[in-house]
Write a structure and sequence with these properties.
heterodimer; A: 114 residues; mainly alpha; 83% helix; B: 184 residues; 10 helices
Chain lengths: 114, 184
């Protein structure tokens, strides 16, 4: 029964005429699709190729730059050294130079002179 | 190039890729459409509609899955839609479709008589049974795949195939039931 059905339902032709007929009817849709693809390609942002192809490299480069920029500063080690190297007097000197302290000292001196 | 790659290129408007897809699947699609419409002209119209519809919605095709069942679902629906739209079963057209004129008149008459019987047998089946038995016996789809194509439970497909085969056998009257049951 399978063979009989297959023989009777299978088209006699090789399908090329059918395919050509389908392609003829589909030519408009295919053309619109090609136009849409071309339009999409033309409207890509200038650096879209970068986002598409080089995004990992851009990220990697930014990370590398950030790391390189942090190494010379080394804020944790520098701050410790500064704190350790500065004498207590210099800290007091620096603190005394604050405007508020200077104003307070001047006011105190004026009172004492009276 | 596999079907998924061709579908991707067809989605971008590649005429050759779409043509290759059509050429690859036209035979199976036309067979199923013939089984549904029982008319070769209607079947080819439905098959063309199916391919155009497939192109329209090719973005919905999951490229990780086989192309055939996805296309067959569209083809089946296209054939059923066309059949219902016309609401006519031009059974006489099937004779013309199956008519071969290279043999002797006696042979032609014999084949014509056989075709009429097959035509009547197919036409006597409900649409769903025609599709199920065609997909199962002619196209080699599994019950589960046919269930996915038709959107019905697998058990229903088994039942449809069983009843369709039995009706065809009864109508044709030339095949032993036990043989087909074992094939399944």
């Amino acid at each position: 029964m399978k063979d009989l059905l297959r023989r009777l339902l299978t088209p006699d032709d090789d399908g090329r005429a059918f395919t050509d007929a389908v392609l003829l009817r589909a030519s408009g849709a295919l053309h619109r699709r090609r136009l849409a693809v071309e339009a999409a390609a033309a409207q890509l942002p200038a650096w879209d190729w970068l986002a598409r192809w080089a995004k990992p490299w851009v990220v990697a480069a930014l990370v590398l730059l950030a790391v390189v920029a942090m190494i010379p500063a080394r804020p944790w080690t520098d701050s410790r050294r500064t704190v350790a190297a500065s004498p207590a007097d210099s800290e007091a000197l620096v603190a005394s130079l604050l405007p508020a302290d200077m104003a307070l000292a001047s006011a105190t001196d004026a009172i004492q002179e009276r | 190039m596999d079907d998924a790659a061709l579908a991707a290129r067809a989605a971008a408007g590649d005429r050759d890729a779409f043509g290759e897809l059509v050429l690859r699947h036209q035979s199976a699609v036309r067979r199923v459409c013939r089984a549904v419409t029982v008319d070769d002209h209607d079947a080819d119209d439905a098959a063309q509609d199916a391919f155009l519809s497939a192109l329209d919605r090719i973005e919905t095709y999951d490229r990780s899955r086989p192309f055939g069942p996805w296309l067959m679902r569209i083809a089946t629906n296209a054939a059923i839609d066309l059949l219902r739209r016309r609401n006519v079963r031009r059974t006489e057209a099937l004779d013309e479709a199956f008519a071969g004129n290279t043999d002797s008149p006696a042979r032609d008459a014999e084949r014509s008589e056989l075709r009429q019987r097959v035509q009547r047998a197919l036409a006597g089946l409900p649409e769903r049974q025609r599709v199920a038995v065609t997909l199962f016996d002619l196209e080699g789809y599994a019950h589960a795949e046919i269930a996915a194509v038709l959107g019905i439970p697998e058990g229903t497909v088994r039942s449809d195939v069983f009843h369709a085969r039995r009706k065809l056998r009864d109508a044709l009257g030339v095949y032993a039931p036990a043989k087909d049951e074992q094939e399944e």
